[in-house]
Amino acid sequence: MFWRMTGLSGASPVDTILDKENFTLEELLDEDEIIQECKALNSRLINFLRDKAQVEQLLRYVVEEVPEDSEKKRSFKFPFIACEIFTCEIDVILRTLVEDEELMDLLFSFVKPDHPHSTLLSGYFSKVVICLMLRKTAPLMNYVQGHPEIVVQLVDLIGITSIMEVLIRLIGADENIYSNYGDAMQWLENTDVLEMIADKFSSSDSPEVHANAAEILCAVTRCAPPSLATKICSPSFVGRLFHHALEESRPKSVLVHSLSVCISLLDPKRLASASYQAFKSNLSHGALVTASPETVDGMLESLGNLLKLLDTSAENVLPTTYGYLRPPLGKHRLKIVEFISVLLTIGSETAEKELIRQSAIKRSIDLFFEYPYNNFLHHHVENIIVSCLEGKRTELIEHVLNECDIVGKILVAERLSSLSTESNGPTVPSEERAPPRIGNVGHMTRIANKLIQLRNSNSTIQAHLQENTEWVEWQTNVLVKRNEVENVYHWACGRPTSLHDRGRDSDDDDYRDRDYDVAALANNLSQAFRYGIYSNDYIEEAQGSLERDDEVILKCELYRNIAFLLILVGCKSISKSV
């Protein structure tokens, strides 16, 4: 138990077991309060558990599979309790483990190829090893350094998510560990662990292996030791990724997850992630990976082969509620469009010229209109268009307006407004019902509004829009009215109409700027309660009582009004202090 008072509580069941002359570890593990007693640092219990024989038995529960016909306690309860005892982080128990070579061999025997690896025990093994990483980092890393085969064995089990979590921390892609114990992990920088992980894209057909390999590599791009950071953004490593991704015989999951790693290398938004904010105070211990021009050039070398995959000849059909897709877009093509979107955000003139030359932007915009119900695709293509329009290079803006003809395509889609029955595109409506309205109107509206916003500061956009009489007419008769209808601050449905001039993301400013007339609010509340506009549980209770009188009612009103006033005054002070 966490605490006791003499005379008010009986003896702990754990102490009762420890009072016996002969008792076993299993008896203690079967007692429900053993974890509480460990956390309460019960000295008699800890002195028993710190013994090598007991630590060894606890490890066997964690790493050894049992026959299927074993008791449930042995299969489930004892392994769980044993793992929880280790993760209580009791120093003497952990010291017994890390200072004994045989016990460490027993722990890491779990990752040997001939050992069964159930999901349940993998989770327990992972928790114990991560606990040692956090509390006994130096001894653990010294042991792993002396047994380099452990890293290879962990990579071979990368398809198990729990093992993946161990590997992420082991190679230093965890700011909490690496920032404090960078010296203990320097040896890993000279290994081929990143190459071994990347090669899993080629040696395995399992989507889980591909996803976990990408997760580890993405973690390295966010927080990694310096030499690993240099290696993962090198042109040779990027080339290795694209080589695996573009192999015709490989599953599409290889392409999807390889591109996820490249996107993580390029995407500047990762700098604002939570992990970065937690780690930025320790930047001297690790490095955020930034894509160099050489890295971008390495990616652009494979861009042509990548873009060929956007044009598919597959004949597979996907039935939908509005008809069917022939063929569906697919995760791999969606990921390629996302990759193009991120390439345009890094400000590389070389990348922009190559995307224009190979018509990558034009093909992405075509997909936007060919798949009018895929909002994931619409989001990425909108980002592509906005990046081009907001860019500083006129060549990119003219390409979107002229070669891609974004304005003309928007007007054609708006004119049709419904899914075409005569189109030869991949999205085919059902013959049994009327064609539905296309689903990308909202994104087209946002793109149109962005064009109008930017024309005031960009003569190229302004001239292009003014020359198009159909656009001017559509903007006047359709877009302006649509924006008015979609302005939520004009809706008479409970929203404050006085805020129509505020931006749609100004909720914080609303609370920050609003001033409260406390005296007027108090008077209104008093009147409301007096005439029964608001229910008052206290008043109803008083009225239902045999001893009700006016004094009780007035007191209830007073208490309720005071409570409201305190809340309002508190809101006012908080909003002004933010």
UniProtKB/TrEMBL annotation:
GO molecular function annotations of the record: protein phosphatase binding; protein phosphatase regulator activity
Source organism (scientific name): Panicum virgatum (Blackwell switchgrass)
Region named Disordered: 420-439
Residues annotated as signal peptide: none
Highest taxon listed in the record's lineage: Eukaryota
Family: Belongs to the SAPS family.
Source lineage: Eukaryota, Viridiplantae, Streptophyta, Embryophyta, Tracheophyta
UniProt protein name: SIT4 phosphatase-associated family protein
